[in-house]
Amino acid sequence: MQTTLKIGTRGSQLALAQAYEARARLIAAHGLAETAFEIVPISTSGDRIQDRALSEAGGKGLFTKELEEALFDGRIDIAVHSSKDMPTLLPDSLELSAFLPREDARDAFVGKAAARIADLPKGSTVGSSSLRRQALIRRMRPDLNVVLFRGNVQTRLRKLEEGVADGTVLAIAGLKRLGLEHIATDLMSLEAFPPAPGQGAICIESRIGDNGTAEMLAAIHHAPTGQALACERDAGTLARPATLSLIDYSRPSTQPRLWVFDLERKRLLFEERVAHGRNSGDNLAARFSNAPGSLMSSLGAFVTADTYVGHNGYSLRLHGLEPGFNDKAYERAIVIHGAPYVSDELIRSQGRLGRSFGCPAVRTAVARRLIDTIRDGSFVFAYYPDQAWLQRSPLLGGCAGAKLAAGAMQDARPSGTQMAPAAAP
Fold first, then answer.
1. Whole-model pTM?
2. Is 21 exposed, middle or buried (0-12, 13-18, 19+ CB in 10 A)?
């Protein structure tokens, strides 16, 4: 029989178990043979990076990037994920189209020196790769030694047997799916040890507009889990301080033109110079594009996504919200990153900052702090009195929107200097 659906998954035993569960549910729902489905294991960056915390290497997107690339190029039709591994924002044209019934969301302690964290001897070592779990363990027992414990479930259990640590914390859902729930020595309450958003739930990612696949997945979608996960993922976004970032490309690159505001406390957090694309202009930007390969900056509203470490160092992905003007930001790899060419030395030597490939680059010294302040769901608004954008932007809405944008930018800028006004339509 010809393969009906290619199911992408990470290659660990747990990830494969989750893919097999999704396949079994599809077989039962549609009465198809097992041969109608192909399981496609794909190695991800998160699986390969074992020497440091994921927060230092790029965050949750490291477990999904290669799977999403396979969705984009058609090597797979769906990707099966642990919901807790999903970034808050997805790439353009992809969606979470189904959730399977949720397992127990609690964390389990697997102890060698004691059955519970509370009973560990002072100075005992507990291994965990999760910043959340590390923080909760330290809150419960500040006297414990909490160490990085990377690897899949089997790798962590092996390290435990080898004496690398006296205990570790794992999701009970994963242990159950592997038939290993019996090794848990303590199940921690949701109140004392809150789980990650989405923990215990399997989600399925697919291409927006792939109607045939969407119809197949609708038969196995568990609506109550989907509703719960929608709330948890939104709460994860709202947990960060509410910020708004404004870039005014009508100002020269030698002047501050990026501002980050804390909307809750009504204060300015950052005022920075920012580079524009090399084909947008020299010291003054005047040309903007959404086209791949243009090496120009883009205008309009963006929302921040996850971080990663690439050839430009620690970087923040941006998703454009305006079709035709910036919606290809993800495809173009338009990110906020630090760059050595954003410096006073270059201004003194050449009268302007260096230029990027289209990215809003900032000083290297401030990049990580700024990125961590605005990552995961904050809005970035890039302005220039470009008539095509002002009149056609779906968010600004023509003449009234153009005046609103110019007025908002003028009111927001702390320095009080005048900026180029939008011309009358």
1. 0.57
2. middle
For 282, counting Cβ atoms within 10 Å of its Cβ (0-12 exposed, 13-18 middle, 19+ buried), the class is middle
Q: Which residues are catalytic?
A: 85
Report how far apart the first and last C-alpha atoms of the chain are (Å, whole number).
61
pLDDT tens-digit readout, 43-90: 876 666 555 555 444 445 667 889 999 999 999 999 999 998 888 778
CATH 3.40.50.300 fits domain 5-101+198-238:
no
- Tell me the three state secondary structure of residue 377: coil
- Nearest of 131, 127, 125, 126 to residue 57 by alpha carbon: 131
Instruction: Give the angle subtended at the CA of 9 by the CAs of 147 and 56, to the nearest 5°.
Output: 30
For 348-365, what is the HEC assignment?
HHHCCCCCECCCCEEEHH
Please calculate the CA angle 99-102-104 and round it to the nearest 5 degrees: 160
| Residue ranges matching CATH 2.40.440.10 in the chain | 243-412
Reported residue count of the chain is 425
Vertex 410 angle, CA 386 and 412, to 5°: 115
Q: 12, 87 in Cβ contact below 8 A?
A: no
